[in-house]
């Protein structure tokens, strides 16, 4: 079993994360429980920053907060000197509440509302990543009402297909995101923005997809971007000072996943930028990237308690846990694969192959198909690894299941950073119309 970061098996044969025995965490905090290895998150942040420093280029590493956005995470990102990419007023609000400096925030999204735009301008965020012409003109109008000039990047779709699941692949021409490069919309957008007095264009942004294991897609995107940059310089006389190459760097979820070290992705990108821009005699721009999954993904472990067990002889053994697609929708959405161990008997030999079912009323609520484990019993603690990205942030209350707590562990300390939801959280926004009988009942 591959263990990430500070995770290891301790003398009692229990999984330990951040110096804390997982079975003791469960006794104290209950299950399901998201446990985040803070040291590993910080290590990943530093790997990106160090790799860029080594390149000698000017850079910003903006953590894509959609992967996991809570106030404590924003604090870490701030402390590690990264910028932050937000994609909604909720993420922006979380960052601001955490004291994240507004000038290091970049606002993304293909349908920003006028309210979100106004809020972000009032807070003086660093940059908008503009997705389309409707947004561009709305942004200019709101900025001019407020007598502000705002920095923007244009999100372009470079026509590069990343080798990943089609739902998380975004760089191809047929995408809901961004200005198409090949059909001329990106060029038209630059022509238009140069006429707008309340917008300062910094450069362009390209994000080709997520969970990518190769560097070729990023290099191809750089090829496309430099071609575009040169055309804009030669025909419109405008120089891009920033190129943002998005996120998408893959991580190891299961055996057979072959991500590159962070430094290799960064080196491929920075080398490609240096070579391409010097070939065109173009001033080397500042490079921004937006990793999400690769910062937090492998630091997360979800702990569950095993409940029921169903053996269909000759077909399958189902082991059900007290969570499922509500805390981790990725297997249901993308056929994502995960690994698991028994946290309370982590050193015992494999005895059976079982499939891990969630507790939702949904046949598709399966967390893992066919995982090898010791003989599983009711009450065992199952640990699913690599759940730090797009798990808590995509969790739901389907079946009115309360969302789990999130715990940060580091050097033997364990701190709740998101409380487990209560029944009051579940019904807190419900209202019963006055024409119906009003009852107040405490369970
Ligand atoms: C624009 C943009 N930037 C960054 C990311 C982060 O991607 P990842 O978590 O794969 O690094 C995404 C999500 O795929 C995105 O859409
Ligand atoms: N939510 C996706 C990736 C994010 C896509 C955002 N552009 C996943 O879990 O893999």
TrEMBL record:
CDD domains: PLPDE_III_DapDC. InterPro entries: Ala_racemase/Decarboxylase_C (IPR009006), DAP_deCOOHase_LysA (IPR002986), De-COase2_N (IPR022644), Orn/DAP/Arg_de-COase (IPR000183), PLP-binding_barrel (IPR029066). The active site is at 361 (proton donor). It holds the Pfam family Orn_Arg_deC_N. Pyridoxal 5'-phosphate binds at residues 248, 290-293, 390. The modification N6-(pyridoxal phosphate)lysine is found at residue 66. Its cofactor is pyridoxal 5'-phosphate. Its EC number is 4.1.1.20. It catalyses: meso-2,6-diaminopimelate + H(+) = L-lysine + CO2. Substrate binds at residues 293, 330, 334, 362, 390. Coiled coil: none annotated. Residues 40-296 form the Orn/DAP/Arg decarboxylase 2 N-terminal domain. HAMAP family: LysA. PANTHER family: DIAMINOPIMELATE DECARBOXYLASE, GROUP IV DECARBOXYLASE. Specifically catalyzes the decarboxylation of meso-diaminopimelate (meso-DAP) to L-lysine. This is Diaminopimelate decarboxylase. It comes from Paenibacillus foliorum. The gene is lysA.
């Amino acid at each position: 079993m591959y263990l990430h970061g500070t995770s290891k098996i301790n003398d009692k044969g229990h999984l330990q994360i951040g110096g804390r025995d997982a079975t003791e965490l469960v006794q104290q905090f209950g299950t399901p429980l998201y446990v985040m290895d803070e040291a590993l998150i910080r290590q990943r942040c530093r790997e990106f920053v160090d790799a860029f420093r080594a390149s000698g280029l000017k850079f910003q590493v903006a953590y894509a907060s959609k992967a996991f956005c809570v106030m404590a995470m924003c604090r870490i990102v701030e402390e590690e000197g990264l910028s932050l990419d937000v994609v909604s007023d909720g993420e922006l609000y979380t960052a601001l509440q955490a004291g994240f400096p507004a000038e290091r925030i970049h606002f993304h999204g293909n349908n920003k509302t006028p309210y979100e735009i106004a809020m972000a301008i009032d807070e003086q965020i660093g940059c908008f990543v503009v997705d389309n012409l409707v947004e561009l003109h709305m942004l200019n109008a709101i900025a001019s009402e407020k007598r502000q000039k705002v920095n923007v990047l244009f999100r372009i779709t470079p026509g590069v297909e990343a080798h990943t699941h089609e739902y998380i692949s975004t760089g191809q021409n047929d995408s809901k995101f961004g200005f198409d490069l090949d059909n001329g919309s990106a060029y038209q957008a630059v022509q238009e923005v140069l006429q707008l007095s309340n917008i300062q264009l910094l450069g362009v942004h390209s994000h080709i997809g997520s969970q990518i294991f190769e560097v070729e897609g990023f290099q191809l995107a750089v090829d496309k971007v430099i071609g575009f940059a040169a055309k804009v310089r030669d025909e419109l006389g405008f120089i891009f000072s920033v190129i943002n190459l998005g996120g998408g760097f893959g991580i190891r979820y299961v055996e057979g996943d072959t991500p590159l070290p962070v430094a290799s992705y960064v080196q491929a990108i920075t080398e490609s930028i240096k070579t391409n821009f010097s070939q065109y005699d173009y001033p080397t721009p500042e490079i921004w990237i937006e990793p999400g999954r690769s910062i937090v993904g492998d630091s997360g472990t979800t702990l569950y308690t095993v409940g029921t067990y169903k053996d269909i002889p000759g077909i399958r053994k189902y082991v059900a846990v007290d969570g499922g697609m509500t805390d981790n929708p990725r297997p249901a959405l993308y056929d994502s694969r995960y690994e698991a161990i028994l946290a309370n008997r982590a050193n015992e030999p494999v005895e059976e192959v079982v499939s891990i079912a969630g507790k939702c009323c949904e046949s598709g609520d399966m967390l893992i198909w066919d995982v090898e484990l010791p003989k599983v019993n009711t009450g065992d603690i199952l640990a699913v690894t690599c759940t730090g990205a797009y798990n808590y942030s995509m969790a739901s209350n389907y079946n009115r299941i309360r969302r789990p707590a999130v715990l940060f562990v580091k050097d033997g300390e364990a701190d709740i950073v998101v409380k487990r939801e209560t029944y009051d959280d579940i019904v807190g926004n419900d209202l019963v119309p006055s024409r119906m009988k009003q009852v107040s009942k405490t369970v």
